[in-house]
User: What shape does this take?
Amino acid sequence: MTKSNSYTSITTVRPSDDYILEALSSIELQSIPPERILVIVNGGSLDDGNVAIDVRRHFPRAEIHQSDEPGTVPAMRMALKICSTEFITFLDADDIWMPEKSKMQLRILQENKLLDAVYGGVQNFTSQKNIENPIGDNVAARLFSATTFHRRAFETNGYPDSVASHFNWLYRWWMKAANTGVVTEGHPEIVLKRRISKVNLWKTEHDTGIKTLFAELRESFRDGLDEQ
Assistant: This one.
């Protein structure tokens, strides 16, 4: 791998997870594999579940770290602080990358040096007994797991907000990115299969998520009026 293709994959996960090995397998199977694989365990001790044991057994190249703070955003912030490669990627612990995801997005970033991030298409699915059932339409989405970032995107825009919730951190980061001049490009090719599981918070706490997101939208709208 040349230095120009050097990237880090970041996966945040709780101490126990049913799908972490599938996620890491899709990282290892990339046609251009990452230089570093960071697995950040949050919400408990490494000894509390199966993740640390399974990852060490099946993916010895992965680096396991424990976040002192519970939650996805603190774990992501921790990973970004120790990441040193030019490009950075993320994958949720229950999702799956398509094999050409990194190669395609790295090529686009290298061909257009002005781009700070490239995102791709997402296919939502449910799974039962190893059978995948696609749901909904495939769309290009600015999910972190569907994106490859140049590290300057975070130098320019900062890390995800540590006080944001599960439901608004992503929207908040991208809204700020629009104001700080982060340059992005989207492509329709499917790069991510996103699992919609029974414990998905957008299903189990749907009303809370909608209220939180609408509150964020209203705040953004008021900020925009204040700046005019």
Q: What stands out?
A: The chain has one domain: 3-199. DSSP finds eight helices and nine strands in the chain. The CA atoms of residues 121 and 139 lie 5 Å apart.
